[in-house]
Amino acid sequence: QVQLVESGGGLVQAGGSLRLSCAASGRTVSRNAMGWFRQAPGKEREFVSAIRGSGGPAYYADSVKGRFTISTDNAKNTVYLQMNSLKPEDTAVYYCATDARGTLFSDMYNYWGQGTQVTVSS
To answer: Do residues 115 and 7 touch, judged by C-beta distance below 8 A?
Structure first.
């Protein structure tokens, strides 16, 4: 059984930083593609970042490139999203996912976490 548990969300001022964690069970993050998505109120879920396993290529949405960094910790079987220089428009529920059925950039993943709220105040 695959489980993904996100944590690390919260309220932060614009310009601040947060690090999101996604602890996985039933899948090894070092050998599986992992994705981060977000959904703001009234908007569709959108791609944020993905990585093809430990040391694999990383991908970012243009809106977060240069500010967010995705990484993995194999010992903890966890994928992280380091978010710097946060903006109010980054406010959303952030989800991690694994087992992509299509491209890494679409939301066609088989397994999702429950999400963690990120709120950036201006």
So the answer is: no
CA distance 119 to 89: 9
Q: Please state, in angstroms and rounded to a whole number, the distance separating the CA atoms of residues 67 and 85.
A: 6
Q: What six digits make up the tokens of 7?
A: 């944590």
Structure tokens at 31: 């050998």
| Exposure b/e, 107-121, CB count within 10 A at least 16 = b | bebebbbebbebebe
Q: Locate tokens 């950039």: which residue?
A: 105
Task: Find the mean pLDDT for residues 29-46.
Answer: 95
What's the mean pLDDT in 32-37?
A: 96
* CA-atom Rg of the chain in angstroms: 13
> What digits encode the pLDDT tens for the residues 55-102?
889 999 999 999 999 999 999 999 999 999 999 999 999 999 999 998
| Residue matched to tokens 């992280």 | 80
